[in-house]
Design goal:
- The chain is mostly beta strands.
- It has one domain.
- Strands 1, 2, 4, 7, 8 and 9 form a six-stranded mixed sheet that branches. Strands 3-11-10-5-6 form a five-stranded mixed sheet, with no helix packed on it.
- The protein starts with 6 loop residues before the first strand and ends with a strand.
- The relative contact order is 0.27.
Length: 204
């Protein structure tokens, strides 16, 4: 059982933007979204207050990660990110770029496919997941060579939308954290995308 002090909350759009700045700024070979073992869990962590944990960009992973003391843990459970360099020639407004991220989540994700468990206890279920949707305002980032999505490197604008969880009050010691979800084609009832990650955490 988890500690009574363990709680969840939706992160702010600014916190999610910081999460994506980290992901998009790291090259693919050391990116935590690609990482299978947790070897890159600490790479590029940008905050003394927050610690970011990432889902996969498809498939499953088992990772180990040590969390420094005094951090709130922000988890990217299932999300859609788009940038101008991923959408060449579309020339979207800020509002248009943000709206472009919505259908993949609002139309294609059923909340009953989402899960978030700490020490085998489900902390969010069913309709409560709707409280954990976050849309970021468009912002700029410099994509490195051989970036996460293997698009042209350089300065670009991006927006992201999806399900994110901030984990609070995790007691020191070992814990198991798992989360993930599925994107479906609602007409064909076929799986388009699935992510699943299991973290063996050491909370300092």
């Amino acid at each position: 059982m988890t500690s009574a002090g363990t709680q969840t909350a939706p992160p702010t759009p600014e916190e999610v933007t910081t999460l994506w700045h980290r992901l998009l700024s790291l090259p693919r070979h050391k990116n935590p979204a690609i990482d299978k073992t947790g070897a890159h869990c600490q790479d590029g962590q940008p905050s003394e207050r927050l610690w970011f944990l990432q889902s996969t960009i498809g498939g499953s992973a088992n990772r180990a990660c040590t969390i420094p003391p005094g951090r709130e843990i922000v988890c990217n459970v299932l999300s859609c990110e788009l940038s101008d360099l991923e959408l060449p020639g579309e020339n979207l407004t800020n509002q248009g770029l943000g709206e472009k991220t919505l259908p993949a989540i609002d139309t294609n994700v059923e909340t009953n496919t989402l899960y978030f468990k700490v020490d085998s206890e489900a902390l969010i279920e069913g309709e409560k997941w709707k409280d954990y949707k976050v849309l970021t305002p468009p912002s700029q980032v410099v994509l490195p060579e051989k970036n996460l999505f293997l698009v042209q490197p350089g300065l670009t604008r991006f927006a992201a939308y999806g399900f994110y969880v901030k984990l609070l009050g995790l007691e020191p010691g070992p814990h198991n954290l798992s989360f993930g979800g599925t994107v479906m084609d609602p007409e064909k009832q076929l799986t388009i995308f699935e992510t699943s990650v299991n973290y063996s955490l050491n909370q300092l």
